[in-house]
Write the structure tokens for this entry.
Amino acid sequence: MLMLDGAPFSSGRATFTDELLPGAGARIYVKIGVGGMDDTFLAMLDSGAEWSVLDPEIAAASGLIDQEGEAITLSYRGGSAQGKLVQATISVMADEGESLTIEGTVFIPTDGWPTGRHFLGYHGFLENVRIAIAAQTNDLYFGV
């Protein structure tokens, strides 16, 4: 995949799943890694989310929960959560090509967040990448 000037648009491709929770509607879930952890997990790609979010369990396992950060209240569809913004290394894991690693800002909830919900949001992550979605094949192409 090329840009109009002939430069590569993407450096990697990942297969996404679009139905993690039955009946929840179509969503795009990609496999990500967080600096400080060996395990990978699924996060929802959400261009409408202001910040990327990692739940407290992942934040604790990666050491991010102990970092200092700006305290904020994040509003979401189900309510609001208290937490902090911290710097993190997030990687979208490639099935083909190179995985995409971004140093960005993530929200770490300390109160009021549903367990197991992780998002890749706009500020601090998606604003730094190029993405293309091939919905027919469940492929996500990405690059910087």
User: Anything to note?
Assistant: The mean pLDDT is 92.
